[in-house]
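Second attempt. The first submission of Outer membrane lipoprotein Blc had a stray character pasted in from the spreadsheet, which I only caught after the job came back as garbage. Lesson logged: always re-copy from the clean sequence file. Corrected sequence (175 aa) follows.
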Amino acid sequence: MRKTCLLLLTLTGCTGIPDGVVAVEDFELSRYLGTWYEIARLDHRFERGLSDIRADYSLNSDGSVKVLNSGYSAEAGERESAEGQAEFVETPTVGRLQVSFFGPFYGAYNIIALDKPGYRYAMIAGPDRDYLWILARDPQLPAATLKALVDQARTLGFATDQLIYDRHPPSEQIP
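This time the job returned cleanly.
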């Protein structure tokens, strides 16, 4: 996703976590790897015009995480993607990573909520309250689960009234 580069220029060196927000502990990377669907996000230029946004995480040979973000652009009539790399900020058992899509420029990827029994949903914050994503293993989340995550984000001071809810085609139409 060409627009992702704009975000990373903005976030250069921004690998912090918002005040009062805590990353999950007892994190297990092996369970987190795989495909995640974006359910909701706060608006940013690098994702505008995209739908069916997904993130695929896999392990690189050096122990870092390969990140492949993609989304469908109706304007271009095709999926756009960006490949990056993530590394832990603290220890591998704390859900705080820094992600780079080019060079030495990193952005914060703070996992602030996680379905620990099943690793079926997660909530991610950037370095401040302007960045928030709700992800799930399936293209949709049960309404009660989504409401609980949105309520948690609101309590933490995120502008949940500005969330954008992503659209995903039926599974038989997913490219």
